[in-house]
Amino acid sequence: TSDMISGNTIAAVTLVSGGGGVFSGHGIDTRNTAGLTVSDNTVTGLEFGLYDEVESSGMMISGNVFGGTIPGSGNNYGISLDDNTNSVISNNYVQNSQYNGIKDWNSQNDMYSGNVVTSSGRDVTTGSTDGVGFNIYPDTDGPVTMVNNYSRLASSYGYYIADAYLDAGNVPTGPYSVFTGNAATYNQGTGFYVLEDALATWKNNTAYSNGGGQIVGEGPAAVFGSGFYFDYPQQDTISSNSATLNVSEGVYFDEAYA
Questions:
Q1: DSSP secondary structure letters along 115-152
Q2: How many whole angstroms separate alpha carbon 79 and alpha carbon 33?
């Protein structure tokens, strides 16, 4: 049977209304693991709620709560993965993170389902304006699947998705990324920002009332926030999505290529 970390409560700071700051320490630190289950834990007030950096695979991360309900009681990062493969991250609740709710870089074939990320980078004590709900950057190591996730009230992007495909000799290679049923609402920046996507499927996603945040260095009138912003997309399939009441464009394409 696989190892399991379940049902623990881990807190590193006294939770005081209006408190917060930049924290240190890792709540749950996992490395070089295969098939580990992390479920039903509550982690608050640390640099990383869950930190997995070194080539883990097949993890099941589900039903956890990262961050407290009081503003300033979140972790710097709720979940942070790097070089992870074939893991399932589902039904977690991530709140009041100082920076990113969920950060996943240089990974491949991870699946996100039913996660809720709220109020990333919204702590007034740190002045963070770069909070991102889901920061997913496979860096062409492989695809990601995201189904029925929700990002709201981030101080920047709801979702930041970059290079989510496998690059085999400068040629995108399947399987390709799939994004269905996800929602982004009331984020200060763009709901879904997508950089250099290739042959991905975007279907039945919702971007509602995103935007209004200030572009750093541009002045108070320079607000931004599209529903969906595709930057250098390549042969994506985009259908049956909804973009309503966003500050800028509903769907914006920049330098699409075949």
A1: -EEE-TT--TTTT----EEEEEE-TTB--EEEES-EEE
A2: 16
Task: Work out the angle at residue 186's Cα, subtended by the Cα atoms of residues 181 and 251, and round it to the nearest 5 degrees.
Answer: 60
pLDDT of residue 216: 52
| Distance from C-alpha of 258 to C-alpha of 253, rounded to nearest angstrom | 13
Structure tokens of 143? 């695809």
Q: Are 173 and 140 in contact, with CB atoms under 8 Å apart?
A: no
Tell which residue, 1, 90, 74, 84, has the closest CA to residue 38.
90
Task: Output the CA torsion sign for 255, 236, 243, 161.
Answer: negative
Q: How far is CA 118 from CA 114, 121, 164, 237, 253, in A?
A: 13, 9, 23, 28, 27
Which residues of the chain register pLDDT less than 70? 1, 13-24, 122-129, 213-223, 258
